[in-house]
Amino acid sequence: MNRIIALLFAALLTPAHAAEYAIDPTHTYASFEIDHLGFSTQRGLFKQSSGTVEFDPEGKAGRIDITIDAASLDTGFALRDDVLRGEDWFKVKAFPSILFRSQKLVFTDGKLSAVEGMLTLLGEIRPMRLEITRFKCGLNLASRKQGCGADAQGILRRSEFGLNNGLPFIGDEVRLRIQVEAYLP
């Protein structure tokens, strides 16, 4: 117990500065939602990701690089997943990664509210804005590591990346959600 109190006290006294955090793949997931024939919203997720987060709370600056393993796609239905990984959709053999790289962190009232960057999907690079709905940096009491975490979401048009299959029956608008935790090494 004394060690936890000492760690908390040290964390409070440590001056804030830019730090680079490694994304924790066991607590970071990208998921998506898309309209299916007007009947329902279909959901899926990518179960593997990696990357880094650099954050300077005093300077209100930083960067985020997230690499999503396209082959880790999971919609809960194996046959559909195989089709989506194939040559008519995500082409995971030719394009194994989906990348998000920030260009600007946006702050509102002193809090991180959005991240503007570029999304690379199927070799196409397009601007993407992720709205931050939750953000926190501090000491994770379970792991005793300094870290940052966030919930982010944005909307993309899949046709802008060449994913035209099923249009207009399967929605063009895709909501991308990324839950991320990253920790100091």
CATH architecture: Beta Barrel
User: Could you give the order of strands across the largest sheet?
Assistant: 1-4-5-7-8-9-10-11
Order of helices and strands: HEEEEEEHEEEEE
Extended strand count: 11
Cα gyration radius (Å): 18 Å
CATH C-level name? Mainly Beta
Largest β sheet strand count, sense and barrel closure: 8 strands, antiparallel, barrel
> Which consecutive residue ranges, at least 5 long each, have pLDDT under 50?
4-15
CATH topology: Lipocalin
The separation of the N and C termini measures 23 Å
The CATH superfamily label reads Lipid/polyisoprenoid-binding, YceI-like
TL;DR of this structure?
With 185 residues, the protein is mostly beta strands. The chain has helices at 2-13, 78-85; strands spanning 19-23, 29-36, 40-46, 49-56, 61-69, 73-74, 97-108, 111-121, 124-140, 145-157, 170-183. The chain has one domain: Lipocalin.
Describe it.
By secondary structure, the protein is mainly β. Helix content is 11%, strand content 57%. The two termini are 23 Å apart.
